[in-house]
Amino acid sequence: MKKIGFIGFGNMAGAIAQGIITSGFLMADNLIGYDIDKRMIDKMKSLGIETASDITNLIEKSEYVFIGVKPQVVESVLQPYVNCLKNKAIISIVLGYDFEKYQGLLDSSTRHIFVMPNTPARVLQGMSLIEKTHSLTETEFNFVKKMFESIGCVEVVPSHLMGVAGTLSGCGPAFVYMMIEALADGAVKEGVPREMAYKLASQTLQGAARMQMQTQLHPGVLKDQVCSPGGSTICGVEALEKGNLRATLMSAIFAAAHYNKGK
């Protein structure tokens, strides 16, 4: 019996699998996976993960079934296997498929939990949100929590906040990568070599984030500590304010959180 069986092995599921192997939480031989994409199958094999011949085979071999498929295919993928999933524990990272949605899709004996991770899990720096409402046993819940703690930080979140909180942590890395790229571009414009610029920008963002988490000081206080009167930093801050950095980032969260309303 494998500990976890992955149905779908896209970027996020792959990042989690790689993270829990790298952290030592589970060995690759405790995992099994299934995907219709040959590239994903090859990716699993490269990590030392066994591949299942079909979904029934995967469910039978797995203690926990990990759902990592696209939201638009969840029901078509799972409905034929509702009986196979009886008395199984499911971990789902599918956007929009929270506790209530799975309650209407699965047999009442199937225990399930919704988790919203992010891609930095691959390097053990993930931020995972676990829906507070779930149907796992206490032992199963503790296992899931410890697994995601092995690849970063975990926050247990009320159901009504999963959407917007998940937008911040799930979409946020893309926004941060854009900041890294822009900061580096600014340095390159002034003559700094590209590789050096990326390293300086990435470490600066990482260091600043860690300092805020460890000190628990308000970000504005930490910003003020860098801004000397009449100095270069406050001039840069003025440029960011003129460019509406804060409002733009707030708008990015709003747009990402409400993207479905425009469809």
TrEMBL record:
GO MF annotation, one: pyrroline-5-carboxylate reductase activity
Pfam families per record: F420_oxidored (PF03807), P5CR_dimer (PF14748)
Residues that span the membrane, as ranges: none
Catalysis: reaction(s): L-proline + NAD(+) = (S)-1-pyrroline-5-carboxylate + NADH + 2 H(+); L-proline + NADP(+) = (S)-1-pyrroline-5-carboxylate + NADPH + 2 H(+)
Residues of the Pyrroline-5-carboxylate reductase dimerisation domain: 161-259
EC number of this enzyme: 1.5.1.2
PROSITE patterns documented for this protein: P5CR
Domain named Pyrroline-5-carboxylate reductase catalytic N-terminal: residues: 3-94
Family membership: Belongs to the pyrroline-5-carboxylate reductase family.
Function: Catalyzes the reduction of 1-pyrroline-5-carboxylate (PCA) to L-proline.
The protein's name: Pyrroline-5-carboxylate reductase
This protein's encoding gene: proC
